[in-house]
Amino acid sequence: GAAAPPPQQPQQQPQQQPPPQRGTSSPPGATAGGKVPWGSLVATAMDPKGSRELQQLLPKLSKGQLARARDELAPHMHALSRHTFGNYLVSKLAPLAPMHAALAAAFRGRVVELLCHAQGSRVVQAYLAAAAPAEAESLVSELDGHVVECALDTHGSWGVCVAYSATHAPFLLRQISASVVQLSLEQHGCRVVQSVLQEAGNAGVDCSAAVGRIIGGGLEELALHRFANYAVQVALRQCGAAQREAMLGALMPRLLPLSASKHGSNVAEVVLSLASGPLLDAAAESIFGAGEPASAALRQLVEHQFGNYVLQTLLRRLADGPRRAAALAKVREATTATNFGRSILSRLGEAEAA
Q1: DSSP assignment, residue 32?
Q2: Local confidence band at 2 (pLDDT 50, 70, 90 cut-offs)
């Protein structure tokens, strides 16, 4: 059986350079020998070869020349941000402080539109990652009331992740929390839920509103869902102790049904990795204890392509000693030529005894 996939980690869309195009004639004023094509910067930026050359050239300019380039490009920054080739140049200029005011002016009033645009989203992300906090917050405030709309969009979702990372704006977390179940069930929305809850939790921001809605939104169904299972995993890791106990208490008795699912088995492994004390003891007893129900549960996990990984996680949580030895003995006893017993024992360093 293949290993269960790790939780998807949101990340900013990679910026891929347009491939060189043979036989493309450069526009008038294209860079020649490293000279800046003053008066033709916009036309040059819209050409594939010209855009690449300007990306190399402009960041190396003196302060005065950079100001001149900014003034020439400023009226066209919005159009370039949406352009197939021009957007790469604007993204390259985004980290340069002298460009920030011109970029902010080009984006103001258009953040939602740009964030949901294939090229524009990359440019705004680059700007937000580089801008001073007050500058970033000013633009991000335009998302207020449009967070869910952007989070459900292919390009907008990456933008919302970066917007929260750059600003920790409370309204972003609040609006995502209010629609967390709806977002978790959608591919792009779930990316936002994962990223924002991870970022908020790491910063010590209270995520309890979002986690409460996940708990009340059909926890087992979400854990079994192809996208929402990742939101459940992040919620388990980032929530406070009381909510974690509630989630573990609800999910642990459903360990077997979760383990029989590709997506649910990911959650089952997180549940076992976070459980302790009586909860972990009860899980071990339900699988390694005496009686036919426990034997049947063990057989199910040993024979299942996803369940066997859950069983490995449980075995790793058992402290060395008589209980772990007895559990391994039961796995050995359940091992056949056709199930995953040998693989489990091998991964736990018990192959020689199999």
Answers
A1: B
A2: very low
CB count in 10 Å sphere of residue 113: 16
Phi and psi at residue 21, in whole multiples of 5°?
-115, 115
| Closest of 240, 179, 188, 245 to residue 213, by C-alpha | 179
Give dist(CA 171, CA 113) in Å, integer.
Answer: 19
Is the CB of residue 168 less than 8 Å from the CB of residue 203? yes
CA dist 51 and 11 (Å) reads: 25
pLDDT the model gives residue 32: 53
- Residue 19 has a pLDDT of 52
Distance CA 340, CA 353 (A): 15
Residue 82 CA: distances (Å) to CA of 30, 33, 129: 21, 28, 18
55/49 Cα distance (integer angstroms): 10
CB of 123 within 8 A of CB of 84? Answer: no
Query: Closest by alpha carbon to 53, among 77, 85, 76, 22?
Result: 85
Pick the closest to residue 301 from 291, 287, 318 (CA basis): 287
> Can you say whether the dihedral through the CA atoms of 290, 292, 296, 302 is positive or negative?
positive
